Amino acid sequence: MSDIKIIQDTRERILDVAERLFMERGYEGTSMRMITGAAEVNLAAVNYHFGSKEALLREVFRRRLAWLNHERLQALDELEGQANGAPLKPSLVLEAFFGTLLRMGGNESLGGMTFLRLLGRTLTEPAEFIRTFFSGEYAEVIERYKLALIRALPDVPRAEIVWRLHFMLGAMSYAIAGTDVLQVVTGCELGDISDANVDDKVAAQRLADRLMPFLLGGLRAPLPQFLDLSTQQQDASPSSGKRKTA
């Protein structure tokens, strides 16, 4: 085996181990010693490839998010091309954004449910440095999908679409994070209310079957009554064309 191949394999092994341990224990609960022990490398190897635990976590996400962001943008490009300038159906927008993520859960080569749970856990309890990292990684994708939803729902105020996108992202984050929140709130674990011991592909599909109709129902829910007057005022306001960022 060549030296380059050995270096590449070592790097990937460190990333795989770090991904699993960060998912199981969280960022703060995972030490570099745990990672080096499980990956069977020394600290010098981790420092050589990544430099620090913060940089290691960022790279764990970057290798997965690069694929996810590309697929989400490509899916939206294809849908908009097929629509020939017409607004997309809201269900298609949600499927391209959230469905693409859920399909990662069924693909072990893309991290499977381990990565999805890590992503959900990190989004629900982000450190400041990772919050900044996510903001940069997601900026283009979020903006494109927000504009697609605005076009898909012309009768919904833009601010309300941002709120609903916020709610949907929150629901997705908690759903993929695993059982912690469910156990605290209901006293149940996921295995208590669903089939246990299914593989990642089946688990990801069942999660999609449950979650996607829920998200679409929330997006299509009636507007709050207090928006009746404010919507009219917004439509008449010269500043109503300004865009808010998510």
| Strand portion | under 5%
* Sheet with most strands: none
Q: Any idea what the shape is?
A: elongated
Order of helices and strands: HHHHHHHHHHHH
Please name the CATH topology of the largest domain. Answer: Tetracycline Repressor, domain 2
| CATH top level class name of the largest domain | Mainly Alpha
Distance between the termini: 47 Å
Give the structural class. mainly alpha
User: Which blocks of ≥5 consecutive residues have pLDDT under 50?
Assistant: 235-246
How many helical elements? 12
Number of strands: 0
| Mean pLDDT rating | 86
Which secondary structure elements does this structure contain, and how are they paired or packed?
Elements (H helix, E strand, L loop, with lengths): L2 H23 L6 H8 L3 H7 L3 H31 L6 H15 L7 H13 L3 H25 L5 H20 L2 H7 L3 H4 L6 H20 L7 H10 L10
Helix pairs in contact: 1-2, 1-4, 1-6, 4-5, 4-7, 5-6, 5-11, 6-8, 8-11
